[in-house]
């Protein structure tokens, strides 16, 4: 009878339907998400089918379609086959209106109702459950003139509204199938029940003919006609008129808030799932509870405590005008409009109710005395019950006084007062929806001149506007339009300059603009992170980016395409200001010919000529400590500051900005630079004693590739490119030159000019110059010096050498000279990234063995703005670092387990913890033998990571995978800013267990955002991964049986009674505990052959003969003791805020709130996407892990339908069998590790290092002993 798609947080997407048999009995049926593809094509509404092999499950929820207490479930063995039509009946069971109104019918059963639509209200645009929807109110009249109130939502509201508009005789009969009965204020009404209901207007039914025959005369046009325009042009009334009104309806009222009604709460808490008010449980107060317990709220619909609650406003105000006083009520959406904030933001994470109603928040008290224009709803209880409180259904924004004047004025508005052809003015115009546009359609064509009269002038309501004019034109019924001959040959372009796009004014964001240029840098089709509902497409998430170059005379290696974009708006996308097309109005013209008055060639030249001639001023500043930083003065301000800034002078600069120092080359190693603004103040000051700020680079350091090529070389300490003029020698110092390797070779290096920033100082007065002269005099003037680095001078700079030495090298007391190879600049107010890196340096870990040469870092990185969430990291540089050594991120799973505790100190880090919990010993098979290893603890609340503001666990749990991936990405981006030397390095992401979710999701975000922040992701590797829980769960028991953990009899019994298709609700729970081996305290589920910890007590001295190859079952207790030591935390820069709880390896509460839908989600589609982008994938399994056994992982890989490239074969380490491996098309390799459990680097460190090394070097695993 009805088929619809339904989505729930726990179960995901499913198909729901209502079935009816030949007897007319109706029953719910459902198809789960994993079977949708199998059945979706054969389930068609209105078609009879034969359905066999089904399950019967108890019905749940409050509302049902019949008295039957069961619903049908489809299983894998269910079959749906065709059937001849049994009956043409719709099996209507129309409920009588008087029975519904009397309350004698079962309100939990959905009923069919039919009647004539009368008293229809305007259709409303609302937000329900944070989603936009529509609502319409009306009454249904039956043949006995009994009237039943009705409310329809969403698409059903649009169906009725459209039918009433199109009706010619004013008679509309509506049939609502499976309608819900509501009770509010002792008044019963009906409404649709989500997508379960069906709405038919004037259906062709025998019941309709019977209804017409028995109803007598129909009421003509009893649905309320529209008064005014579609946007809600309701009459304005005073409060006295509202109080004395005798008509149900709506009206505008301009009123002033005189007081807040404190008899009612200002806000309440409701269940997120049902949007209904919940009741707070009395808080439990126990003296031994260290941390305050989060309050719980009882939800009547859930029949239990709500999993997630949210605060919403419920304001009751006393309002008044010059005629009287009344009260009004504003629900959350309208209260937010006048308060400018949301209830959760106002409460700031608190769940406390207002104890003293006279003490209200300032933002609510601030409403007193303010004037608003409300749209009030006058209801029956206001008219007949004397109820003086009215519901606010809309808040009008804008200038109220102007709006009153406009609506009350009937004066004719002269069009010339709005539009001036000579001034190229624009004005917005609006034609309301409905039939208004029909008379005007023939005249409304682009490029047509028209005459408009008898229109209305209103205040613009839309944020996006097409003109900056104060008012806009609104068409009404009396408006007349007729065409005019062309008055002036113009296209009225309003072109924007790049600088206006980069630094827009506040009002520029609201108006559309035009641009013109040559199309360059066109991207492929990209997608925003967007998940579409079933049946919809992701078309709205697709976009293409490109650039417009305003230089048509430039040289291109392709035929240039000139584009004109019209009516595009400035928007911020991925942190950059761009022109974005607006839906409906934006246009783009490629090589346009329809603008004959624009000569593209001359116009492009004209565009270039319009760019201001002043150029950006670049500076290099040095402070008294010898630290240097770049500064930029924009072209609009360069003329203002040029008289105050001279080379060699000391100045004090205040009120500046700090911006990222982008570009392929920089004058300093600093990641930021100073940006001048209109508020920046520059004052001359007297010189101060200072440390020399120049750093002279040696030829050997340049040739041996020891200097970062992205930073301009300050000078060469031995760079004495001299020429002989009259027998003399000139020593030349080159400042801020670029290092370049002009062809491959060990010493084929040169330095080149880098534009205006580069300079030459002949014979500078510095000690190094004098030293070179002295050496030259000792060796003789005729000595021919030669160097392997060739220096190329531009003509302008070379001319400085030919002159006598008039250009002197500024002394360090004089100000800005040569750039230093420094790490920070002391004058800026924002703490820079390199100083943070230095602060994070770990001098030495407590108990660390001697002979450690590699550096270690530890600290916090903020992952949001403003900084409130901080992830802790532990970073270990490679033992033998080089500029090509890759960066590897490591994740442990859980979700909620620490990568520092497990990964760094138990598995693959450089150290393990002794049994005393105080000292460390080396791990010779640490992965930093091959890579720089980065461990960080995530998500928030794992290990040392924390949030400085209250954290809503329920909200996090509902989208945990997504939020974790976003935080992980922001951590990596911000960490690379702190460690810029790793930008551009090969990056690999590795981990195990639930990292099977973390890693693919993070990799996907990296690839999607590489046009914003480039990260050179080369591959991912995941051990014993959780990739698809549903498939893995079905294959775990095969491993359990094959390793003798259950009997063959129990396995056969389990397969019989616990099979999804033949689930036995009585017998399956009895056999299930035998397969839940994770609860067996005598068995380690992560390595079934490993011993378990029997004594967790720390030893006073480290155990003797401790080796890496010996796995201590109590190791986690040692790590916990070590990381909770205050001196360890201090050395690692951890727990700096003194968290009120101790460090733990796993946060089990976080795991408990993690939504099952995320845990069950399959990562296979993401793996396919990554492989399609060229990312190499390694999946490996320890062959004695029962948590996620190799049988489960192989079953998941089988569903990927990959072609095998290299068949199953053994691999070896040092002559010993390491496991087996197989390669697939698309750069995916699967390997097993012999004798290893869940943590391969822990159980088999030698094999693990071999596996890891082969992966990052992209070499095959050894196939021979």
Automatic annotation (TrEMBL):
Name this polypeptide is given: Nucleic acid-binding OB-fold
Gene Ontology biological process: proteolysis
Residue ranges of domain Replication protein A 70 kDa DNA-binding subunit B/D first OB fold in the record: 2-83, 606-683
Native organism taxonomy: Eukaryota, Viridiplantae, Streptophyta, Embryophyta, Tracheophyta
Signal peptide: none
Function of the protein: Probable carboxypeptidase.
One GO term describing the cellular component: vacuole
GO molecular function, one term: serine-type carboxypeptidase activity
Organism of origin: Arabidopsis thaliana x Arabidopsis arenosa
Database matches in CDD domains: RPA1_DBD_A_like (cd04480), RPA1_DBD_B_like (cd04481), RPA1_DBD_C (cd04476)
Record localization: Secreted
Claim: Electron transport is one of the keywords in the record: no
Pfam families assigned: DUF223, Peptidase_S10, Rep_fac-A_C
Domain Replication factor A C-terminal, first and last residues per copy: 253-381
Keywords, in A-Z order: Carboxypeptidase, Disulfide bond, DNA-binding, Glycoprotein, Hydrolase, Metal-binding, Protease, Signal, Zinc
InterPro entries linked: Euk_RPA1_DBD_C (IPR047192), Peptidase_S10 (IPR001563), Rep_factor-A_C (IPR013955), RFA1B/D_OB_1st (IPR003871), Ser_caboxypep_his_AS (IPR033124)
Family of the protein in this entry: Belongs to the peptidase S10 family.
PANTHER family tied to this protein: SERINE CARBOXYPEPTIDASE-LIKE 36-RELATED, SERINE PROTEASE FAMILY S10 SERINE CARBOXYPEPTIDASE
């Amino acid at each position: 009878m009805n088929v619809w798609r339904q989505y729930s947080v726990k179960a995901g997407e499913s198909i729901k339907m209502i079935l009816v048999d030949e007897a007319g009995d109706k029953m719910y049926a459902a198809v789960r998400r994993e079977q949708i593809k199998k059945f979706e094509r054969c389930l068609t509404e209105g078609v009879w089918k034969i359905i066999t092999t089904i399950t019967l499950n108890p019905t749940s929820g409050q509302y049902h379609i019949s008295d039957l207490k069961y619903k049908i479930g489809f299983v894998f063995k269910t079959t749906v086959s065709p059937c001849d039509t049994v009956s043409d009946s719709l099996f209507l069971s129309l409920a009588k209106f008087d029975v519904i109104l009397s309350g004698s019918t079962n309100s939990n059963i959905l009923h069919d109702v039919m009647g004539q639509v009368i008293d229809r209200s305007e259709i409303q645009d609302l937000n329900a459950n944070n989603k936009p929807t529509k609502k319409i109110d009306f009454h249904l009249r039956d043949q006995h003139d009994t009237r039943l109130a009705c409310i329809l939502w969403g698409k059903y509201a649009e169906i009725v509204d459209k039918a009433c508009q199109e009706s010619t005789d004013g008679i509309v009969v509506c049939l609502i199938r499976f309608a819900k009965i509501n009770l509010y204020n002792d008044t019963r009404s009906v409404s649709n029940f989500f997508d379960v209901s069906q709405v038919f207007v004037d259906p062709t039914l025998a019941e309709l003919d019977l209804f017409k025959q028995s109803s007598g005369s129909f009421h003509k046009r009893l649905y309320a006609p529209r008064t005014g325009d579609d946007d809600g042009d309701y009459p304005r009334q005073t409060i006295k008129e509202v109080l004395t009104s005798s008509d149900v309806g709506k009206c505008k009222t301009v009123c002033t808030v005189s007081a807040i009604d404190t008899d009612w709460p200002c806000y309440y808490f409701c269940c997120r799932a049902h949007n209904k008010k919940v009741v707070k449980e009395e808080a439990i107060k126990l003296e031994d509870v260290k941390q305050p317990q989060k309050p719980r709220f009882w939800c009547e619909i859930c029949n239990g405590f709500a999993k997630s609650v949210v605060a919403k406003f419920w304001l009751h105000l006393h309002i008044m005008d010059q005629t009287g006083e009344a009260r009004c009520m504003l629900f959350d959406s309208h209260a937010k409009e006048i308060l400018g904030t949301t209830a959760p933001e106002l409460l700031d994470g608190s769940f406390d109710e207002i104890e003293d109603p006279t003490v209200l928040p300032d933002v609510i008290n601030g409403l007193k005395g303010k004037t608003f224009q409300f749209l009030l709803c006058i209801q029956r209880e206001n008219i007949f019950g004397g109820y003086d409180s009215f519901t606010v259904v809309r808040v009008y924004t804008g200038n109220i006084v102007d709006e009153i004047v406009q609506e009350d004025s009937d004066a004719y508005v002269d069009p010339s007062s709005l539009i001036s052809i000579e001034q190229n003015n624009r004005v917005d115009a609006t034609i309301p929806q409905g039939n208004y546009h029909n008379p005007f359609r023939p005249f409304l064509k682009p490029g047509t001149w028209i005459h408009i009269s008898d229109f209305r002038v209103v205040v613009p309501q839309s944020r996006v506007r097409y003109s900056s004019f104060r008012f806009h034109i609104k068409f009404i019924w009396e408006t007349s339009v007729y065409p005019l001959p062309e008055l002036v040959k113009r296209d009225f372009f309003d072109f924007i300059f790049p600088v206006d796009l980069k630094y827009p004014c506040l009002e520029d964001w609201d108006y559309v603009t035009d641009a013109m240029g040559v199309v360059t840098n066109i991207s492929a089709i990209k997608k925003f992170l967007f998940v579409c509902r079933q049946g919809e497409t992701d078309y709205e998430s697709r976009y293409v980016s490109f650039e417009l170059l305003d230089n048509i005379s430039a040289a291109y290696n392709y035929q240039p395409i000139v584009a004109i974009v019209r009516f595009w708006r400035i928007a911020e996308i991925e942190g950059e200001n761009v022109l974005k097309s607006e839906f409906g109005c934006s246009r783009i013209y490629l090589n346009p010919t329809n603008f004959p008055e624009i000569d593209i060639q001359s116009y492009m030249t004209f565009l270039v000529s319009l760019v201001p001639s002043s150029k950006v001023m670049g500076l290099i500043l040095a402070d008294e400590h010898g630290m240097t930083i770049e500064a930029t003065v924009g072209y609009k301000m360069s003329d203002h500051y040029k008289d105050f800034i001279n080379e060699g002078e000391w100045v004090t600069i205040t009120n500046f900005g700090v911006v990222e120092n982008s570009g392929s080359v920089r004058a300093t190693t600093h990641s930021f630079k100073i940006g001048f603004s209109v508020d920046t103040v520059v004052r001359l000051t007297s010189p101060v004693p200072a440390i020399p700020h120049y750093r002279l680079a040696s030829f050997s350091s340049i040739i041996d590739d020891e200097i970062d090529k992205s930073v301009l070389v300050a000078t060469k300490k031995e760079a004495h490119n001299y020429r002989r003029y009259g027998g003399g020698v000139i020593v030349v110092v080159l400042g801020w030159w670029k290092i370049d390797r002009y062809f491959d070779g060990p010493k084929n290096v040169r330095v080149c000019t880098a534009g205006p920033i580069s300079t030459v100082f002949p014979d500078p007065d510095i000690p190094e110059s004098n030293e070179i002269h002295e050496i030259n005099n000792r060796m003789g003037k005729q000595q021919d010096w030669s160097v392997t680095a060739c220096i190329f001078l531009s003509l302008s700079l070379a001319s400085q050498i030919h002159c006598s030495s008039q250009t002197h090298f500024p002394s360090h007391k004089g100000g800005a000279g040569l750039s230093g190879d420094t790490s920070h600049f002391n004058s800026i107010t924002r703490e820079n990234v390199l100083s943070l890196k230095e602060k994070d340096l770990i001098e030495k870990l407590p108990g660390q063995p001697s002979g450690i040469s590699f550096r270690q870092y530890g600290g916090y990185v903020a992952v949001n703005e403003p900084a409130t969430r901080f992830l802790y990291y532990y970073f270990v540089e490679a033992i033998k670092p080089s500029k090509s050594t890759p960066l590897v991120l490591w994740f442990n799973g859980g979700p909620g387990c620490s990568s520092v505790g497990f990964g760094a100190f138990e598995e693959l880090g450089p150290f393990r913890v002794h049994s005393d919990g105080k000292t460390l010993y080396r791990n010779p098979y640490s992965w930093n033998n091959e890579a720089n290893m980065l461990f960080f603890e995530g998500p928030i609340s794992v290990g040392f990571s924390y949030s400085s503001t209250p954290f809503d666990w329920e909200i996090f749990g509902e989208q945990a995978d997504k939020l974790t991936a976003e935080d992980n990405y922001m951590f990596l981006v911000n960490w690379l800013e702190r460690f810029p030397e790793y930008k551009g390095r090969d990056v690999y992401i590795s981990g195990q267990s639930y990292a099977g979710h973390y890693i693919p999701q993070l990799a996907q975000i990296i690839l999607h955002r590489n046009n914003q922040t480039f990260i050179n992701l080369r591959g991912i590797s995941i051990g014993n991964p959780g990739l698809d829980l549903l498939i893995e769960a079905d294959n775990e028991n095969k491993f359990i049986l094959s390793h003798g953990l259950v009997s063959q009899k129990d396995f056969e019994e389990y397969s019989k009674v616990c099979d999804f298709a033949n689930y036995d609700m009585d017998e399956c729970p009895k056999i299930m505990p035998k397969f839940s081996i994770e609860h067996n305290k005598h068995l380690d589920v992560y390595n079934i052959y490993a011993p378990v910890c029997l004594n967790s007590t720390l030893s006073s001295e480290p155990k003797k003969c401790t080796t890496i190859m010996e796995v201590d079952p109590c190791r986690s207790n040692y790590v916990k003791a070590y990381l909770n030591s205050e001196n360890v935390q201090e050395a690692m820069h951890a727990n700096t805020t003194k968290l009120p709880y101790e460090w733990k390896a796993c946060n089990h509460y976080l795991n408990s709130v993690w939504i099952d839908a995320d845990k069950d989600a399959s990562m296979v589609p993401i793996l396919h996407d990554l492989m399609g982008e060229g990312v190499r994938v390694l999946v490996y399994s320890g062959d004695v892990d029962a948590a996620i056994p190799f049988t489960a992982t192989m079953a998941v890989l089988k569903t990927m339908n990959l072609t095998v490239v290299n068949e199953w074969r053994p691999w070896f380490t040092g002559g010993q069998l390491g496991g087996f491996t197989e390669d697939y098309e698309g750069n995916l390799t699967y390997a097993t590790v012999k004798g290893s459990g869940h943590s391969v680097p822990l159980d088999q460190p030698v094999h693990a290092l071999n596996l890891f090394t082969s992966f990052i070097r992209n070499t095959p695993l050894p196939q021979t002993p």
